[in-house]
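Notes from the 1:1 (GR / supervisor)

We went over the backlog. Supervisor wanted to see one worked example end to end before approving the batch request, so GR pasted a single chain during the call. The sequence is below; no edits were made to it. Supervisor asked that the structure be written out right there so they could see what the output format looks like.
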Amino acid sequence: MSPPDWDVIVLGAGPAGALAAHQLSRHRLRVLLVEKRAFPRWKVCGSCLNGVALRALGEAGLDHLVDDLGGVPLARLRLGLQGHRLELGLPLGQSLSRARLDLALSEAAVAAGAVLHLHTEASVDGPCPGGRRVLLRSGDKHQITSARVVLVATGLGSPGLDPAIPIRTRISPSARVGAGCQVEAGEASGYGRGTIHMAIGRHGYVGLVRNETGDLTMAAAFERAHLIGAGGPAAAAAAVLAEAGFDPVPQAASASWRATPALTCRSTPPAAERVLLLGDAAGYVEPFTGEGMGWAMVGALAAVPLVLRGQGDWSQELEREWARRHGRLIGSRQRFCHGLAFALRRPGLSRSLLMAVERWPLLTAPLLQQLGGATLERLTPEPCP
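Structure output shown during the call:
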């Protein structure tokens, strides 16, 4: 009976998958990282890395990666709601395009020893002796391989699991959909570097930030019915900016917008026999100023000890422990964002909160502590020398 082909197969080379592959390769495991697209790629994302994400990169030994790539320090958060403005100082944050970040993380994983397959779709199949089968498809080529543990970091939407695997993804009935575009440097001069601009409207919000090239990234979340009624994301975003009292971005009307699946979903449980779900595939809610990137990276680090233990015999206790660990480290942060989204969807409550913060700025302390990640615990064991 031959052993599995790989120690770990990671599906998806976004921040969660690539960082997990990097860490596990440093522990001298045989790691295959699979990505269905090519790099560099553009993603619907505000390109914000908050303190949680930056501290996770530091723990992974990638302290200088964002600086080396030209990340823009973020010093301020500017909120707009019904003509009211509020500006807050940010404790820690940087802006970096996903095209550059994802490429750099995948290259770091390869440098650590992982094997990367691009243009390859993958799905998790049934169990095999000592592992789990994975089906790979690249063009007309089909292959069956296997691993002792499979990490699924395929993002929002279907995680690509065999129907027999007892993991189900539930989409919240009230979930908004995401949309984003990029406006070239030099346009929309009212939005400067170093500041996250967030316009809040009754039917959605729009975040705007400059990345390392000076381009303006716009990332939004809209109620599905409003998005359709407005005639598309460009018109919906323009309406939110106007409602919030922000400057218009005329160039967004001709930009190439991309949409996402529903933003609020949950996969239950986030694990099965020799399978762990990471990042957006495990569960997601409407994020706030880089929280989504932080969740992805914290999850990648938190999974490493369980994957190492899973190289031998597998037990359901590993699955239960991942559910507990994910809920404690990431679920609690997602509940914070869910509560914030609840408030922002209610104009009267949002206005009252904004006016209270204007009067008592110390009320923002919990939010700033959340974004800064000051209490992030060490998540991974030391790698092999």
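Supervisor's comment: The chain has one domain: 6-173+263-372.
Batch request approved.
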